Amino acid sequence: MPDSVTSSGPAEPNSSAANFLGALFNFSANPALKGQASAFLRTQADVLDTIEPVLLDWFRRRRESIAEANRFVAAFEQSGNSPDLFKAQQEWAAGIFQRLAADVAAYQSTVTRLFESARITEPAASQPAEASRGAIKPLAAKAS
């Protein structure tokens, strides 16, 4: 039977896990963690703010792709003239490459912005992480 389940009643938390989580989220005992939750949530919001317009543009380009494919299929079905069909195919293919170029540019721009944002916040975030590792070591020693 797992440590957290007893036959006499409801589940009780594993004491070493409870001690670890208590120490981990006890901000007064571990000052290195102060502000980390807020910083994490701000970072998540920044990532979503960065990615949202890129995804909306990507969806718009996918809709354009479907519309152009429909136009090409209609031209293919109605055309008895090979020059018209060839022109429709060229326009369809040109649209594909334009959207592909826009996708690549959007990807590169987004990744660059996210890495720049991470580089700006990294030094401040790495120091508390090292300090918190030191605070957790005694708990790991207790558990063993």
Radius of gyration over C-alpha positions, nearest whole angstrom: 28 Å
Instruction: Give the termini distance in whole angstroms.
Output: 20 Å
Helix content: over 70%
Mean pLDDT: 76
Number of helices: 3
Strand tally, please? 0
- Strand count, sense and closure of the main sheet? none
Order of helices and strands: HHH
State the low-pLDDT regions, or none: 135-144
Q: What does the overall shape look like?
A: rod-shaped
Which class best fits the helix and strand makeup?
mainly alpha
Hey, roughly how much beta strand do the residues contain? under 5%
Q: Give the number of domains.
A: 1
Task: Summarize, please.
With 144 residues, the protein is mainly alpha-helical.
Architecture blueprint of SSEs:
Layout: H1 15-24, H2 36-78, H3 82-143
Question: How would you describe this structure to a colleague?
Answer:
The chain has 144 residues and is mostly helical. It has one domain. The chain is built from 3 helices and no strands. The protein has helices at residues 15-24, 36-78, 82-143. Helix 1 (15-24) crosses helix 3 (82-143) and helix 2 packs antiparallel against helix 3 (82-143). The longest helix has 62 residues, at 82-143. Residues 122-144 are annotated as: Disordered. It comes from Rhodovastum atsumiense. This is Phasin family protein.
